[in-house]
Structure to design on (189 residues):
């Protein structure tokens, strides 16, 4: 099994590059942001709670996200492995994922960390807000909150994988093709 993490701040290109990675490496995409948005669209009670958090740019509690990830992995065992996109977002989630994969006799091979500065991210997110209409991309204050949460709670997840010698920083600015080239070089090593 090839299990990878694509990591980075909101707007760094995780979703876009995940699509390239699944085609080339035959792994399954697990995007926690997409799973959460699916739950919102289903109109469930849980979806309503999630919507309040996401639309304000806040994180959904660890336990809720972990349940969704475990569910997805259990139902999608047949493949080649997974690309985790948008997860883990806290050290608690990273530790939990390590234990879960260990029970399956597996592990994360590498964490690809897309490096993009805040100024560029703000520009990209506002552009995506206009184009795709995601509520959390449409308000400067919410964008600012998401970047702050990234810096205070999520960025430290890099240290978790650095200590395990699995963290690979990749320059996330450039064309989609250029960034994908860099990612492939890192994975193939
Ligand atoms: O990963 P993505 O940027 O698509 O996530 C969108 C939103 O979903 C985040 O801003 C956050 O509100 C929520 N989320 C979360 N915990 C995760 C992944 C996403 O709270 N592990
Ligand atoms: Mg995404």
């Amino acid at each position: 099994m090839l299990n990878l993490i694509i990591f980075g701040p909101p707007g760094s290109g995780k979703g876009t590059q995940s699509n390239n990675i699944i085609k080339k490496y035959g792994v399954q995409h697990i995007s926690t942001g997409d799973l959460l948005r699916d739950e919102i669209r289903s109109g469930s009670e849980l979806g309503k709670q999630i919507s309040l958090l996401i639309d304000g740019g806040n994180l959904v509690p660890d336990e809720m996200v972990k349940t969704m990830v475990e569910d997805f992995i259990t139902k999608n065992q047949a493949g080649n492995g997974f690309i985790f996109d948008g997860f883990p977002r806290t050290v608690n989630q990273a530790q939990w994922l390590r234990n879960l994969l260990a029970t399956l006799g597996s592990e994360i091979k590498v964490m690809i960390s897309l490096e993009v500065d805040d100024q560029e991210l703000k520009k990209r997110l506002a552009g995506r807000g206009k184009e795709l209409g995601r509520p959390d991309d449409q308000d400067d204050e919410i964008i600012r909150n998401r970047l702050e949460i990234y810096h205070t709670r999520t960025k430290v997840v890099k240290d978790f994988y650095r200590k395990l010698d699995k963290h690979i920083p990749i320059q996330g600015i450039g064309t989609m093709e250029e960034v994908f080239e860099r990612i492939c070089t890192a994975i193939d090593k």
